[in-house]
């Protein structure tokens, strides 16, 4: 059975590293100060942002593995398991970690918006790879937070800490946006595979068993998390992944209607449960009902 450290709060993680937390809900770790450290496979009830400066570690997150190298940021959220099982080995690390309990967000705007930072649900191979400049920005924020934690607690400290957290998350989002752009060629390849996947879905009549193709299905087949896949498609095409799928379906519908198929037959062929569901979607995207679309085709012949 795997040895899993239950990280119920930030103090659980600090005790594992042999250091003292300065705040019950937040800790900032400079790994250079606590090395050597043993590996840790953690079950997290806290949020965490981790990066190591000099390390090549085979880490597991969810069902995936990742060769964790310099300049890589990994984000975890409550309910996730990640790290490397303790095998008694000690390693020298440099780098930083920020852990914070959801309770510190109560009553703040970040409590509502943290769900918008979709990178917390990315898979491990979708980690953020920082440039040197980006690395320095995150280190600077870690140092400022660590300095704040060493000050005497007052009524503004929590608000200041949450402000730093939000700033760090926004920088991570900016860096991910940059990564989507700088990997545009790779993203284009994903888009081509996405299109081919939809074509194969209908060529093999999977819609008759599974219904309409979903974002989750496509992401799974392309070995991505639904969040990362959706963000990548949006950055590459300007459309959401679900919209891309619907537009593909509407294009197929237009072709079938133009070839003489009835509305009911097209709905069945595409995987809709009911013809009226198909008609509503068709009108939403074309401005016409299927019948009006066919009538206009005949008029323009």
Question: Could you explain how this protein is built, in words?
Answer:
The chain is of the alpha+beta class. Helix content is 51%, strand content 16%. The strands form three sheets. It has a five-stranded mixed β-sheet. Strand 6 and strand 7 form a beta hairpin. About 4% of the residues have low confidence.
Features:
16% strand; five-stranded mixed β-sheet; 13 helices; alpha+beta; 51% helix; 301 residues; 12 strands; five-stranded antiparallel β-sheet
Number of extended strands = 12
* Content of β-strand: 15-25%
Give the N-terminus to C-terminus distance in angstroms: 70 Å
User: Which strands sit side by side, in order, in the main sheet?
Assistant: 1-4-9-6-7
Structural class estimated from helices and strands: alpha+beta
Q: If you compute it from the alpha carbons, what radius of gyration comes out, rounded to the nearest whole angstrom?
A: 24 Å
Largest sheet: 5 strands, mixed
Note the total helix count: 13
Order of helices and strands: EHEHEEEEEEEEEHEHHHHHHHHHH
The poorly predicted ranges are 57-69
Mean of the pLDDT scores? 85
Shape: elongated
Helix content: 40-55%
